[in-house]
C-alpha cells in the first residue's frame, strides 16, 4: 500500500562539516554573528551538503500541477480551467516561476500529477497522472490508495531526476485551482485547528467566500475521526495529487540528501504531512517565505519554521522559494570567499 521507499532511512546531516563551517564563520572578517541568519544558513547548508564550502549552483525546480474536485463547491476566486491554462503558460515560459527560474539559472520542469488536461505533449511537461482531478473532498475521500501511491511516486521521481542532475537545492511548487482548500483541511486535521483559523482567501475570495470555504471544510472534516495521527491517510482523504507529490518529494530529498526550500501555504501543508510521517526529515527543509494566506502562520509555528522573507506573496508555483534563492547564494558566497582575520591581517577583538 505505502510505496516501499517511504521507509528508507533519512540521511543524517554532517555534523563535522557543520562544526568546520561554524569555526570558519568565527574566523571571517566580521564581528561574530553580524551576518545574522546568513551565517546559520551557510552552516546548515554545509551540514546538509556534507561540504565545508556549500554551494547553490544547480537548482532543480519541479512544479506539480493537479485539479481538485472540491473546486465544484465554489471555493476559489478562479475557474478550474485555469490550472490547465497555467500548465501551458509554464510550458511557454510566461508564468512567474518560469521567469524566476530563468533569472536564477535554475532547471524548471512541470509534472502533471492529475489535471483535467487533454492527452498530448507539451514541452517541459512530464505526465505522471494519478487521475483527472481528485474527487470532491466535501462529500467523499479525495483519492484512492492507488492514486495516492502514484502521486507520492511522482514526487520521488522528480527528486531522483534532481539527484541525477547533481542538484544542490530542490524547490517544489504547486499549481491547482482550489488547492488552498485541501491544504487547509490537512492543516486542520494535523494541528487540531478549526477551519475558521486555517481557511483564507486563496486566489482572492471575499469574506463571504472564506466563510463558505470554512463551511465546506467543516462538512469534509465531520466525516473523519482520528486522522490526526495518520498523516498519509489524512492526505488520501483530504489532500490533492500535487500535495501528495510534494510529500513524496520532501521525504525523498531527506533520504537522498538534497536540501529542499519550501515555498508557501500549499507546500507547507505538504511539508507538515511529510514531517508528521517521518519527523527526521525536518532537518532537510528550509523555509523561504511567509505567505499572505493567514493560516500559513499556524502551520509554520507547528513546524518550528521561521521563513526568510515576508513579502505578502500568495502565488504558489514555488515562486516565493525562487525569490529567496539569492539569499542562499549570498550566504554561500560570503562563507566561501570572505577573508579570515589571519589572512587579511585584521585584529580580532
Ligand atoms: O502558496 C501560497 O501561499 C498560495 C496561496 C494562495 C493561492 N496560491 C495558489 O493559488 C491556487 C489556489 O488558490 P485557490 O483560491 O484556488 O484555492 C493554487 O494554484 C496555488 O498555487 C498559493
Ligand atoms: C492566474 C493564476 C496563476 C497561478 N499560479 C499559481 N496559482 C495560480 C492561480 C491563478 C488564478
Task: Summarize it.
The protein has 349 residues and is α/β, with parallel strands linked by helices. It is built from 14 helices and six strands. The longest helix is centred in the middle third of the chain and has 20 residues, at 145-164.
Can you walk me through this structure?
There is one protein chain. The radius of gyration is 20 Å and the shape is globular. Helix 6 packs parallel to helix 11 and helix 10 packs across helix 11 (265-277). It is an alpha/beta fold and 349 residues long. It has helices at residues 15-27, 37-49, 82-92, 96-103, 145-164, 180-191, 195-198, 207-221, 231-238, 241-256, 265-277, 296-302, 319-337, 341-344, and strands at residues 59-66, 107-114, 125-127, 169-175, 260-262, 285-287. The chain has two domains: 12-53 and 335-344, 5,6-Dimethylbenzimidazole Phosphoribosyltransferase, Chain: A, domain 1; 59-329, Nicotinate-nucleotide-dimethylbenzimidazole phosphoribosyltransferase (CobT), large domain (Rossmann fold), CATH 3.40.50. The model has no long low-confidence stretch (mean pLDDT 98). It has a six-stranded parallel sheet with strand order 3-2-1-4-5-6, sandwiched between helices. It has 14 helices and six strands. Nicotinate mononucleotide is lined by residues 76-78, 174-181, 202-203, 263-266, 291, 293, 314-317.
